[in-house]
Amino acid sequence: MIPDQIVEGPLTMSMDPYIGTWTKQEAAHLLRRTTFGPTFQQIQSAVNSGMDAAVNALLQINATSLPISYDPAETISAIGSTWINSVYPADAASSQAHETARVKSLGAWLMKRMNTENSTIAEKMCLFWQNHFAATLAPDARASYQYHLLIRNHSLGNFKQFVKDMTVDPTMLIFLNGASNNVYSPNENYAREILELFTIGKGPQIGPGDYTNYTESDVAAGAKIFTGYIVEGLRSTTLTSPVSTYYDILHDQTTKQLSSHFGNQSISAGGASEYVNYIDVIFQQNQVATYICTKLYRYFVNYDLTLDVQTNIIPVMAQTMIDNNYEILPVMQQLLKSQHFYDIAFQGALIRNPLEVVFGMFNPCESVPNFNLATNSDMYVTIYYYCQTMGQSYGAPPSVAGWVAYYQAPSFSKLWVNSTTIKNRFDIANYITLYTGIPVNGSNFKVNALQLIDGLSFPDNAIAVIDDMCIVFFPKAISAAQKTLLKFILTGGLPDFEWTIDYNAYAADPTNPVVSSPVRIKVEQVLSRIFQMPEFQTI
Amino acid sequence: MKRRNFLKNMTLASLATPFALKGVNYQGIAKKLFNYSKSAEDRVLVIVRLNGGNDGLNTVIPLDQYGNLLVQRPNVIIPQSNIIQVTPEIGFHPVMTGMRNMYNDGNLTVIQNVGYPEQNRSHFRSMDIWTSGMTNISETRGWLGRYLDSVYPNYPNDYPNAANPDPFAISMGYEVSATCQGLMSNFSNAINDPFATVNLLNTGVTNDGSYFGSHMEYLSILIDQTNQYGATINAAANSGASLSTLYDVNNPLAVQLKNVAKMISGGLKTKVYILNINGFDTHDSQVDANNTMIGNHSNLLKMLSDAISAFQNDLGLLGISNRVAGMTFSEFGRQIASNASLGTDHGDAAPMFLFGSCINSGIIGSNPIIPGSVNSQDAVPMQIDFRDIYASILKDWFEVPEIEIQPLFEQSITYYQVLGACNVGLNELVEERDKGIVYPNPAVNNATVRFKCQNEKVKIELLDLNGQQMKVVFDGNLSSGIQNIPFELEGLKSGQYFVVVNKETVKESITLTIIN
Question: Which of B175, B190, B216 sits opposite A535 (nearest CB)?
Answer without folding.
Answer: B216
